[in-house]
Amino acid sequence: MSTPEPEKTPRLDLADLVFGIVMLAGSLVVLLYAMALPPSPYDPLGPGAFPKALSGMLAALSLVLIARVLLRRTVARSETSLVYGVEEGERVPLARYLLAIVLAAATVAYSALLIFTDLPFLLLTIVYIAALGFVLSGRTPRDLAIAVAVGIGLGLATDLIFTRVLLIELP
Amino acid sequence: MLEAFAHLLTSSAFFVMAAGVLVGIAVGILPGITTGMMMALVLPFTYGMSSTDAVVLLIGIYVGGVSGGLVTATLMRMPGEPNAIMTCLDGYPLAKAGHPGRALGLGNAGSIVGGAISWVALVLIAQPLSRVAIVFGPWEQFALVCAALVMIVSLSGKSLLKGLIAAMLGMLLAMPGIDPSSGLQRLTFGAGWLTAGLDILPVMIGMFALSQIIADTLHLETNQAVIRSSMRGILISLHDYVRHGRNMLRSSLIGIGIGILPGVGASVSSIVAYTTAKKVSKEPEKFGKGSEEAIVAAESANNATTGGTLIPVLTLGIPGGLADAVLLSALILHNLQPGPMLYVRSPEIVNTILATHLVAHVMMFSLMTVGVLLFARLMTISRAWIFPAVLVICVVSTFALNNRPADIWVMLAFGVVGYALEYVKAPLAPLLIGFLLAPLAEAQLRTGLMASGGDFLAIFDRPIAVAFLLVGIAMLAWPPVAAAIRRHRQEQPLAGS
């Protein structure tokens, strides 16, 4: 049988507090915009009613969350997940966080280069896959050779599949 | 239905289904890529396909993916798919004790039986339910969406508050764009690209694929031990089917029942089936140490969930999780109306979905039986080489849908949002379902109000709508009531002592 969570928690949950504040700020911005929307001549609700109701409820719920955190009341955690392996408060080595940041930054850079430059998809994809694969691997000289080979192979394969088989327009 | 089965035997449909099941099994085996994530990534590429081929491909991936997790769970003690987590507990010990083929065979048998029983339930329940749902007017539809959302929030675990916040956030994210009734722009904040609103796909790919990769990067594995498998025992005997028959049936029914509930999914069904099997077992002490009953229970339940989850999607147009949400999006992308009208306007699509669900299970069983040694090799591929390739597909598939570069930024932004929400343990299912169902809820409410001349109380003249609202209120009220009862029970012995 599971033990019920204690009603009070001794420490201030910063993550929940930040979450509540961000949600409150966002909902208030939306509420302000929604209140400025003109009524519709066609239906009683108009375009602003639903966003107003939703942002109002979100703001109220965020306030409850913030109040519970500040009063050191327990805020239960979700037990189901659609993104797996994220553990709050888990100690992950700093190097792993850096790796995740590098991955995100490389993907942003790859996307930006695809969108804003005329550099060919094939070249960018080979470099991206090889560079990121090498960074994520053990980074030995052997891994470098594998990264280059995988980059070329997967780059050519994706380019071929997207442009010749699926006939889709690339960014 | 027979036509649909015949269609699946044509070379093109057979090829598409085989490709789907193979990709699904591969995805199920490879840790770091989930079935729903792959379905979302593949969805834009189905745009050029016929709608029947698109659903054949997606159902193939779904069935293959749910089943493929068995291999990694058994040979590596690592769930390739989250729903295979219970299989790890007993599949691995049995494999380590020198019976890897037997462990895989039992799991595979459980999967095909669970899939077949859930197919029967799908066929028997879905059509009558759609006949009931077809008479729903705007008030009933609105109340149904509200009840479904509250149910998803309520079933997402203990966090009712965070679930409600996630659901509201999801619904709000669906609001920007052109108001469908008045044609006015709303919540576009002056950004031209927001005029068309946020597309579900970049949001889904970012939130579930990118954030999953970010999460996995924090736990990149070092060399994981893999048990060498053999074909011995991969086909279990008829006697084994009879011996485990009751367990298979019970676990399948659990899987179907839980699958119908929105926002719960195969992971929970395998846990419930495992726990139930342990409770009724004559040898509960073997659970966790290589119990055959445990493997059968977990695998029957998670495959049975596939049929259960399709029931609300097909009959009510209400998805319960990521895979169903992708399927629903696929129907919309192909200009089909999900929900009960699908049976009336596009019966061929419904029949294709039903037929594919069964045939894909048979194909999965055959492929897993014949090719398990080959599939097992996939586990040795490092995620360092998988992640960059998946990220390329994330970027390209996001762009491919509308040829809109802004979608790529939306996808990247939601990768961070998804990770952050998961970090604070806010459930993502209510957000996703809220995003998908908000336009429907709004449209139905506005239609209802237009018909009633702006009188919201008109909803109380509709008994079915009132019943849905009452279910929603009960689901909302139950968690605090249950907590109060638990507290009261806990305090009683203390007071008595």
UniProtKB/TrEMBL annotation, chain A:
The chain crosses the membrane at residues 12-33, 53-71, 94-113, 119-137, 144-167. Keywords: Membrane, Transmembrane, Transmembrane helix. The keyword Transmembrane applies. It comes from Aquamicrobium terrae. InterPro entries: DUF1468. This is DUF1468 domain-containing protein. It comes from the Bacteria. Residues 18-171 form the DUF1468 domain. Coiled coil: none annotated.
UniProtKB/TrEMBL annotation, chain B:
InterPro entries: DUF112_TM. It holds the Pfam family TctA. The chain crosses the membrane at residues 12-34, 54-76, 103-126, 132-153, 160-178, 190-210, 253-274, 310-333, 354-376, 382-401, 408-426, 464-485. Residues 15-432 form the DUF112 domain. Keywords: Membrane, Transmembrane, Transmembrane helix. PANTHER family: TRICARBOXYLIC TRANSPORT PROTEIN. This is Tricarboxylic transport membrane protein.
